[in-house]
Amino acid sequence: MSDRYTAYDALSLEQPAEGILKITFDKPESYNSVDAETHSQLTTIWRDIDADPTVRVVLVTGAGKAFSAGGDFDLIEKIIEDPQTRMQMWREARDLVYNIVNFNKVIVSAINGPAVGAGLVVGLLADVSIAAKAARIVDGHTRLGVAAGDVACLIWPLLCGMAKSKYYLLTCRPLKGEEAERIGLVSMCVEDDQLQDTALEVAIELANGAQSAIRWTKYALNNWLRMAGPTFDTSTALEMLGFTGAEVKEGLASHKEKRQPSFSKDCPV
């Protein structure tokens, strides 16, 4: 493994085949939740991989029963309480998406369980997204009490249309792997025990393909995402604005207390 990755100790990195770098969210005891350090490393690692001539394809998955459960409660509390942390998370949330959109190489995701938050950003922005039947994809922003930020308003309408996007982003209803494939949110869905082998097979196929042709095709297709940049910027800014209000405090408390939230019926907007 190249020395360029020594700083990324919050992620598990390995090379399962020539030309392939595998990134694993590796905190199975917390369903691979994302703390501040992991969020920062996940944001910046794409630039270092882009500069690594030994890597042609990135494969992303989660250890244990989850892909990634999203931001942990400590991180969310810091975003709520500390303006400096909130601004840092805004910059990182923005850079994470744009770093992946502009990433020159191919990304394959193997979504093996719950996928939420920053982990879901990578899972859905992957060039080929493969979900297990046990996958449980959730955009939980409005359930937390903030606008659907991260990559939701950028990628969901392109993948599955506006009607489905509004339904799932406004209600925060979860999607299993088969339903995510049916509506076009992921590239394919496979049996749970076939997920890792299938994802690696696809990664190897792409790693052995015509690299310039594949990368140029990806670059051109991602112009659809670049054109939607103002929509993404707006959604992420509104998400961060929501962290200053009362709704997110109730949303977080309800998560910690494992109950349904009781949001005020009065709306200031």
Q: What gross morphology would you assign?
A: globular
- What is the CATH-assigned architecture? Alpha-Beta Complex
| Helical proportion, percent range | 40-55%
- The strand count comes to 9
The termini sit apart by: 51 Å
CA-based gyration radius: 18 Å
Regions with little confidence, pLDDT below 50 for 5+ residues: none
What is the average per-residue confidence, as pLDDT, rounded to a whole number?
95
- The chain-level structural class is alpha/beta
* Oligomeric grouping of the chains: single chain
Number of helices: 13
CATH C-level class is: Alpha Beta
Strand content: 5-15%
Helix-strand sequence: EEHEHHEEHEEHHHEHEHHHHH
Whole-number count of domains: 1
Major sheet: order of its strands? 1-2-3-4-6-9
CATH superfamily: 2-enoyl-CoA Hydratase, Chain A, domain 1
Largest sheet: 6 strands, mixed
* CATH-defined fold name: 2-enoyl-CoA Hydratase, Chain A, domain 1
Description:
- With 269 residues, this protein is of the alpha/beta class.
- It has a single domain (3-257), classed as 2-enoyl-CoA Hydratase, Chain A, domain 1 (Alpha-Beta Complex).
- The protein is 50% helix and 14% strand.
- The strands form 2 sheets. The protein has a 6-stranded mixed β-sheet, with helices on both faces. Strands 5-7-8 form a 3-stranded mixed β-sheet.
- β2, α1 and β3 form a beta-alpha-beta unit.
